[in-house]
Amino acid sequence: MNDLFSLQGRTALITGGSRGIGRMIAAGFVAAGARVYISARKAEACDQTAKELSAGGAHCVSLPADVSTLDGVHMLVAAYARHESQLDILVNNAGAVWGAAYDEFPEKGWDKVVDLNMKTPFFLTQALGEPLRRAAEFRAAKVINIASIDGLSVNPMETYSYAASKAGLIHLTRRMALRLVQDNIVVNAIVPGAFASEMNREARDHAAEVSAHIPAGRIGQDDDMAAAAIYLASRAGDYVVGTTLVVDGGVTITR
């Protein structure tokens, strides 16, 4: 049982890993013994987070890239290949949101969000197929897609492309899981609720007010997200395939 949740010696790549939920997962993976690589569009922020998470001799490397385009996806894959030949864990976390009234919602607010939130996880996973399959020769490799409770239920905000993309990612996770499990690559999704981040400023700046609407009575903490990701990434989650793990303090079932 001692190594059931261990990531000792395993490699992990986390997109959007410089802040928010991506950073929470990266910190958890580092603590669990993984060699972690984080990517983000802003190089300075990515480098700083990697430096902070590497304190004390841990392994966290910054690989800045803009994965919103296929060119950026392939640049990240090439950068990772300069460090590692196989990939045990991929976390597709990079995402975007756009809010606008229905009658004014712009095409660019659709394309930017849907491309990054749903298209990128598919094509990045595809592009990393070789290092994932190489890792899967020894034990199950893992892909974790970060969706949202807004893909399961509707909130009052007019974030049309975000809700559609996250719902699509949840279903895409199931479709990918059925195919990739044949290669011993296990695909699942995490659906976060209210966690403090740049994307969820309400939870970050008004935690008490947001908590009043959460059955658990609080917003999510860093360890809540890290624990969910470690569970799916570790041996403990090897037999969990195509699942959507909701981590929201009970919000979804009350909406």
Question: How does this model look, in words?
Answer:
- By secondary structure, the protein is an alpha/beta fold.
- The protein has a single domain (11-254), classed as Rossmann fold (3-Layer(aba) Sandwich), CATH 3.40.50.
- 42% of the residues lie in helices and 14% in strands.
- The protein contains 9 helices and 7 strands, in the order E-H-E-H-E-H-E-H-H-E-H-E-H-H-H-E.
- A 7-stranded parallel sheet has the order 3-2-1-4-5-6-7, sandwiched between helices.
- Helix 1 links the parallel strand 1 (11-15) and strand 2.
- Helix 1 (20-31) packs across helix 9, helix 3 packs parallel to helix 4 and helix 4 (107-127) packs parallel to helix 6 (160-180).
Put the structure in a nutshell:
This protein has helices spanning about 20-30, 45-55, 70-80, 105-125, 130-135, 160-180, 200-205, 205-210, 220-235; strands spanning about 10-15, 35-40, 60, 90, 140-145, 185-190, 245.
